């Protein structure tokens, strides 16, 4: 990165490609949401923990929720 | 906040989380919706599990607080309430007309 050597974790940290869910590098499919990046399996509803598909989540206080949980919690 | 206002109308709500057999005190005020109390509780527990089937059971009134957009005031919940945060679906044993028992 920028001509400097980094270990894998710091390389991904510099590139902004660490998963916000597990803090590990993302090398395959990546979901970008709420200005963060996630492994698809770690982008989950904050209430029921079910996996979210990008575009079908609702955000409240910087946390993602699936539609059913959002309706239940925030009406 | 420094120099927190005393008498800001907030109070402590006692909740028993039945899955964890743990009691929690949450600082709330009467304007908070049931849904927001749930979020606050789940965030304070910080336990990664599916809470989607959970709701507040109010033993003293023998009732569920299922209207999550209602405020605590509207539900009549005050500081003397002891709520349970517990799954809404539970096991039930039923005896059929042929007397067989099923769970």
Walkthrough of the structure:
The complex is a heterodimer of chains A (75) and B (103). Chain A is α+β, with helices and mostly antiparallel strands and 75 residues long. Chain A contains two helices and four strands; from the N terminus they run αββββα. In chain A, the strands form two sheets. Chain A has a two-stranded antiparallel sheet. In chain A, strands 3-4 form a two-stranded antiparallel sheet. In chain A, β1 and β2 form a beta hairpin. The model of chain A has no long low-confidence stretch (mean pLDDT 87). Chain B has helices at 34-45, 72-75; strands spanning 11-17, 22-28, 54-58, 63-65, 82-87, 94-95, 101-102. In chain B, the strands form two sheets. A five-stranded mixed β-sheet of chain B has the order 2-1-5-3-4, covered by helices on one side. Chain B is elongated and about 65 Å long. At the A-B interface, α2 of A face α1 of B.
Summarize the structure.
The complex is a heterodimer of chains A (75) and B (103). With 75 residues, chain A is of the alpha+beta class. Helix content of chain A is 21%, strand content 19%.
Protein topology:
The complex is a heterodimer of chains A (75) and B (103).
Chain A: H1 8-15, E1 31-33, E2 36-38, E3 57-60, E4 63-66, H2 67-74
Chain B: E1 11-17, E2 22-28, H1 34-45, E3 54-58, E4 63-65, H2 72-75, E5 82-87, E6 94-95, E7 101-102
Parallel strand pairs in B: 1-5
Antiparallel strand pairs in B: 1-2, 3-4, 3-5, 6-7
How is the main sheet of chain B built?
5 strands, mixed
Gyration radius of chain B, rounded: 17 Å
Strand content of chain B: 25-35%
Terminus-to-terminus distance of chain B: 51 Å
Oligomer: heterodimer
Q: Count the E strands of chain A.
A: 4
**Strand order in space, largest sheet of chain B:** 2-1-5-3-4
The run of helices and strands of chain A is: HEEEEH
């Amino acid at each position: 990165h920028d001509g400097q050597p980094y270990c894998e974790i710091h390389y991904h940290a510099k590139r902004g490609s660490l998963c916000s869910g597990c803090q590990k590098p993302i090398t395959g499919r990546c979901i970008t949401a709420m200005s963060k990046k996630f492994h698809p399996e770690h982008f989950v509803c904050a209430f029921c923990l079910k996996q979210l598909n990008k575009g079908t989540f609702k955000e409240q206080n910087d946390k993602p929720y699936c539609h059913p949980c959002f309706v239940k919690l925030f009406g | 906040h420094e120099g927190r206002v005393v008498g800001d109308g907030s109070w402590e709500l006692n909740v028993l989380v039945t899955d964890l057999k743990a009691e929690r005190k949450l600082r709330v005020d009467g304007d908070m919706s049931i849904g927001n109390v749930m979020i606050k509780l789940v965030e304070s527990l910080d336990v990664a599990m599916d809470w989607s089937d959970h709701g507040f059971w109010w033993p003293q009134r023998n009732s569920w607080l299922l209207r999550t957009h209602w405020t605590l005031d509207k539900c009549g919940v005050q500081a003397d309430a002891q709520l349970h945060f517990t799954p809404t679906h539970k096991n039930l044993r039923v005896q059929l007309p042929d007397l067989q028992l099923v769970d």
